[in-house]
Amino acid sequence: MTRPSLGRLPATLLRTAPSVHNCHCKRLPGHDVRRIWFSTQIREQCKDLILSDETLHQVRDKMLDAIKLGLAKSTNKDASVKCFTTFVQDLPNGKERGKFLALDLGGGTNFRVLVIYLDENHFDMQSKIYAVPENIMTGSGAQLFDHIAECLANFMSENDMYNEKLPLGFTFSFPLQQVGLTKGILKTWTKGFSCSGVVGQDVVRMLEDAIRRRGDIEIEVCGILNDTTGTLMSCAWKNRNCHVGVIVGTGCNACYTERVENVEMFDGDRSKPLMIINLEWAAFGDHGELDFIMTEYDKEVDRNSINPGKQVFEKMISGMYMGEIVRQILIKFTKEKLLFDGKGSAPLSTIWRFKSKYVSEIESEKAGIHTACRTVLKKLELDHATEQDCINVRYVCECVSRRAAYLVSAGTATLINKMRIPSVTVGVDGSVYRFHPFFHDLMMEKIAQLIDKDLKFDLMLSEDGSGRGAALVAAVACRSR
After folding, report:
1. Closest by Cα among 255, 243, 257 to 459
2. Identified catalytic residue from 26, 62, 82, 191
3. Which of 89, 239, 323, 401 is least surrounded by Cβ atoms within 10 Å, i.e. has the fewest?
């Protein structure tokens, strides 16, 4: 995947220049070499969003402490990073063969059903997206799984598989405590879901019960996994050095391969050396670990979320919240007459109205070009924005997105240092990572600065981890029988 060059970062580019209308000079990342001016006041107000290397080292060290607490049986209950055992101990070896179903329920307003045909280092795939109406997202668990079972039956009928019994890998991208490869207990809903009667229950059992209620299809659930595990598995199928999976999309999470002797919560067969650990690091900070870097904007976003006080790390990073953080900043700066001549708008004052995709769109333009920014501001009824306003809005977006990239980098560096594998590939997926123009490059640079000098790493864009990865979990489970 071709990505733009990194350019320079806000934290390293703030150079003092001759004063012009109370501004300082800064070159924005991108393609243009023109000198762009942003307000000194804006820079001063955004300084809490710019994380120094010293601060990132603290985040990295706190993350390691949290992981150790999550791995230990005596402290797991009170740990913010739960380090859930996935029961996936075998990685793909390229010898997986056959036809496998995959179900990808990852949050948002839809889910996917897939059928994947695996052959030697080759696969074919067919898939279909199904909607999850809002009344089902917030209804009962039985309604949700009955809806999924109906869509599975329709998919199998449309693809001439109605009378086949097929293995299925189930990607369930919510905080999950696995009790076995095919048994997972939902800990809490995130991403807008709040179905009743599911938290504390085995979601595989609920899916199987819904399928049995129909009585017209046969499906064997061979494994349940998080999308981070799917990302790792999908990349490992192509690259045997892949031992970390990271998601930076609507949510944010990571998994990695841990030595089984360090996984105290696992009571099963320890003859295999490794275990994929689903960190659920979105909750890092829920016990106050990140209070030292939380800004007033983070606190306001948290207060307005459906789960105040929870998923703190994720709320500083993911696509579900990034745009809202920017909006909170723009609101404050407008009230202080640092933006838009102090004149806001009803849309700007509307919660969640500034979408995270706007951040990527605004930063994707060449420096000095404001077409996308003006389009965004017009949607927010801010047609009166000046060129200086556009420059400043872009700077705010940069500060928020780079902080997100640096926090993900600190967490990823923690895992690389902990595993001590000389050269490791990190599989990464998610809309923020895919579509933000500099996220990949920012991560590459910052991880390199945060890992031990004798270690090497690379980032690999996952190809449909939540789909192909789910099918691969099922395939590896069948291979291991």
Report:
1. 243
2. 191
3. 239
The structure tokens listed for 141 are 């668990």
Q: Which residues pair with 37 in a beta bridge?
A: 25
Cα 243 to Cα 447: distance, rounded to the nearest angstrom: 16
The question of whether 355 is a catalytic residue gets the answer: no
CA distance 450 to 149: 45
Q: Which of 425, 385, 411, 109 is nearest to 237 (CA)?
A: 425
Query: Residue written as tokens 């600190």?
Result: 410
d(CA 318, CA 282): 9
Going 294 to 298 to 300 to 303, the CA torsion angle's sign is negative
pTM: 0.85
d(C-alpha 373, C-alpha 365), whole Å: 9
Catalytic annotation on 202?
no
CA nearest to 237, candidates 423, 479, 472, 428: 472
State residue 21's pLDDT score: 30
Q: What is the longest distance spanned by two Cα atoms in the chain?
A: 76
Quick check: helix, strand or coil at residue 188? Answer: coil
Q: Which of 146, 227, 286, 298 is catalytic?
A: 227
